[in-house]
Amino acid sequence: MYSTYQKWGDAMGKGIAGVVIVSILLLGGFYIFSEYEKREALKNCEISLADVRVVSIGLTSAKLEIVLRIYNLNDVTATLDRIDYELYGNGEFLGNGEFMRRVDIPPHSSKLVSSYFTLDYTGALKTVWSAIKKGDVVWKIKGVAHIDTPIGTLDIPFEKILS
Question: How many domains does the chain contain in total?
Answer without folding.
Answer: 1
